[in-house]
User: What shape does this take?
Amino acid sequence: MTQKHTTPDGLVIVDKPSGFTSHDVVAKMRGIARTRRVGHAGTLDPMATGVLVLGVEKATKLLGHLALTEKEYLGTVRLGQNTVTDDAEGDITSSTDASQVTRDAIDAGIAKLTGDIMQVPSKVSAIKIDGVRSYKRARDGEDFEIPARPVSISSFAVYDVRDAVAEDGTPVLDLVVSVVCSSGTYIRALARDLGADLGVGGHLTALRRTRVGPYKLDAAKTLDEHQKDLTVMPIAEAATAAFPRWNVDARRARLLINGVRLEMPDEYAGSGPVAVFDPEGRFLALVEEQKGKAKSLAIFG
Assistant: This one.
């Protein structure tokens, strides 16, 4: 009799290759993990590489909550050229000599794009406008506007400014940058807006995501590495890393699993999702404080 293959519930941290969509990675992981129950916690553009958090089996229920955490990126912004997509994937729409842009002007432009800002996502993005993906409207040649959305940029730093010459001969500047930001931020929109503020245009030529919440690049493996040796972070460990931990006794654990709204300690008020564990260290549920009581977001026990 053949033994049934079982994939553990947990997270798989992938170092996404360039040229793959996030959906491509999910499809590949379904084959590697031999399960249909695979999802991702927030997309990464095809051009970009780096940390993509996948959930396998029961851990797919964690993904929507993990998607809301802070992200960190390393990238290259080219000043002097605009593109249709705001990154190197799209056709160039304008070229302007950027060689005279000063470091002071760059720093001033970056300061305006740091903190809590309103950002208009790139038109070639997956944002839905009246139920239709923005990139489809753009591809069909529609003239439309995307409303600005609040995002938070906690850090936007320039490590290096390099003189370069674009393929069409335009003198450009390449900025090596790091960004720490809230979920929903478009790094290519930051590149576009910085270029616009400096009057020369700008787009993103490289992007690597180095962190999603507590999950960093050093924990990520390539798809080939996972193919050889699939590494799944157990769901309890994943929840402990991402959310505040609340240990309950056996009686409370039973009540919680049976749908009873427990009283929550004051320390968890307003802290967002909280991971609940029983005395044996089993991860039971993700809850949120609501009027002093634990409202269940997802049950795992």
The chain is about 20% helix and 35% strand.
